[in-house]
Structure formats: structure tokens, C-alpha cells
Amino acid sequence: MNSQFTTALARALPSVGRQCQFRPSPLRLVRPFSFTPRTYENEKQRLRATERQLFDAQNEQSTEGLSPISTLTQMMQGQDKPPAVTEDFEHMRENLESALIKHPYGDKQPPHHLHVYAHKHNTILTLTRPNGNPILVRSCGHLGFRKSQRSGYDPAYQLSTHTFGQLQEKGLLLDIQRLEIVFRDFGPGREAFTKVLLGNEGRNIRGLVSRVTDATRIKFGGTRSRKVRRLG
């Protein structure tokens, strides 16, 4: 009965029956696991996809086999194009930090050391190689000062000026790429050396200084100190 009524109603009103009919989707159904090759709408999209594949392959070949330090050095010097930001950027940063911790100087040459021993009775300057072997040793006694004359600000100032002149005359600055200054004790020669280094006499050496450290010995426990000498 119902089917006859529906058929008669569809014949009488075709527009009502047409709305109830199933309309297939205009989108073309594609099997989810098909092996059909990817199609592009136009030639421009195909060329862009090909260029993107070639660019990714070129980046993988250029960065393959390089350490994090070498990759960062090439990027800073402009020898290679900076690669695009990828998902493994955080991993590369961690590798770089660990490499810098294990090898603080990396591919740079280790520094020479200039030890400034500013004792209250004398001032001694010692230039050493990166392995610790001494190259030049000068004290106030080399300039003619004797006994109590070696202590003071003026002998240390003359000693610093003389030492910087010796470094330039003997050509030792040509072998020094980086210089580390190591202070010890707090005698008058400490301030005198700093004044000479920051003055006109140290203009050729200031650019080589990469680090300034303090190696003053601090007593912690140990034996009893000597009685302080008191005059009068």
C-alpha cells in the first residue's frame, strides 16, 4: 500500500521525488591504498615538486659527514648556503654544545700564556707555549734593579714595557694567534702591567688577548702561617 502511494505521488509530483533520490558526491572516490602515481593539475606544480626534491638531495649531500663545528663555521664564513630549518635542529644544537664542552678550542689553535707574577718584592713575566714550555722570562733584576729596588710600581712598569718590546723585536708575535694572561698575587706589578697593556705600548698585544685569568693561590687549611713581621 505504501509503495503504491509513493509511486503515485512521484508520478504526480516529479520534483518531490527527485529530492529524495540519492545524489552521488561530485568528488571522485580514490582507493586509500592504491599505487596510482601522483598527478598534478598543471606543469608548474610538477616543476616545483621536482626542484624541491633536487634541493633536498643537495642539502643532504652538502651536510653529510661534517661535524657540527664545521657546519657552523661554514655558515658563519658564508662558504655554503645556510640550510633550511629542519626538525633535527635541536639535535644539532645539542651535538654542538657537547662538542664545545669536550673540545673548548675546537679547530682553533690553543693559546700561549703570559704569566704575571706580581710579588710584593719583585715582578716576573713569563711567556710560555701552549704546552707550558717557557719562551721568554724577564724580571726586574734583568733591568739592573737590585734587592729592594725591584719592588715598586716604577720597576714593574719598566719591566712590562721592556718585555713587550722584546716580543716585537724577536718576532714572537708572529707565532702567537691567541694569548691568555695569567695573574698571580696582588703586588704593585699587577696594576703596572695592566696600565702598560692598556696604554700605547700594548697596542699590538691587546688584539691577541683572548682570556684573562687569576691564579692566585688561596690557602685552605694546611700548616700554621709565619708570624707577621712588624717593624717598630
TrEMBL record:
Protein family according to the UniProt entry: Belongs to the universal ribosomal protein uS11 family.
Official protein name in the record: Small ribosomal subunit protein uS11m
Compartment(s) where it occurs, according to its Swiss-Prot or TrEMBL record: Mitochondrion
GO biological process: translation
Function: Component of the mitochondrial ribosome (mitoribosome), a dedicated translation machinery responsible for the synthesis of mitochondrial genome-encoded proteins, including at least some of the essential transmembrane subunits of the mitochondrial respiratory chain. The mitoribosomes are attached to the mitochondrial inner membrane and translation products are cotranslationally integrated into the membrane.
Keywords assigned: Mitochondrion, Ribonucleoprotein, Ribosomal protein
InterPro entries xrefs: Ribosomal_uS11, Ribosomal_uS11_sf
PANTHER family registered for this protein in UniProt: 40S RIBOSOMAL PROTEIN S14/30S RIBOSOMAL PROTEIN S11
GO CC entries: mitochondrion; ribonucleoprotein complex; ribosome
Pfam families recorded: Ribosomal_S11
Species of the source: Aspergillus glaucus CBS 516.65
Keyword field contains Ribonucleoprotein: yes
Highest taxon in the source lineage: Eukaryota
